[in-house]
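Many introductory courses stop at the sequence. We go one step further.
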Amino acid sequence: MVAAVGVVAATAVVGVRQLLRAQARAARTAIGKPLGEQAFHPDRTYRRKHGRPVTLVLLGDSIAAGLGATRQRHTLGVQLAKRVGKATGRAVRLVPLAEVGAESSWLARQVDSLADDLVPDVAVVIVGGNDVTHRVRVADSVASLEDAVLALRERGAEVVVGTCPDLGALALVRQPLRRLAGQASRRLAAAQRDATIRSGGHPVSLGDLAGPRFVTEPEEMFALDRFHPSGAGYRRLARALLPTVLACLDPPQQARGGRLVVVPAAGQV
């Protein structure tokens, strides 16, 4: 009897694995690569005439790179840079280092690619989605992120980490794979939050602050592939990141209506 139960259980496990593999293949086929693998590369200074620029560096994966935006000005980096410039009244130098397809282990290379004479004021890191889909161990992902945050801090940068988005919002992925992906992404996001705080950075929960809109308004928030954000989706992410980015600047204040308003402390968003 016990042997029979064991055989049934083993058969069920195999069946579930086969189902998940089939759903993963179906999702990859449905998503495809209609956006290609090259994002815009907006390496420039915005509001150039407005004094000493804030240096804003973006590292991470295709979300940090802005894949899915149909125009350069709709990418996450440009939208965030313009908002920082407007809020501070300063020029903003945007340095994009993020790569399409990047996992957390790629961050070391991205940090090393920074010019020796470049001292970022704020470095924004968004990574983790590819770690989940490629089934990278959470411990390995977090170790790579923590090393990157520490390296950026040693270079004098304040570091803002947008934690892994909630992959449970991907309606194109069928159940039960979508539920499992959501659980895995939320588990990684929580670990990233703790690692960021531990290494002196400032976490922003993109799943909590921006995720609900991607669930309720997928046609507007997602790009053509229904996997990456659209320009509107990146606008939402930029708004979620902005308060913490501003709080990292010195002084941690923003201009609003001709007066200065103190922004909540970094890491509290």
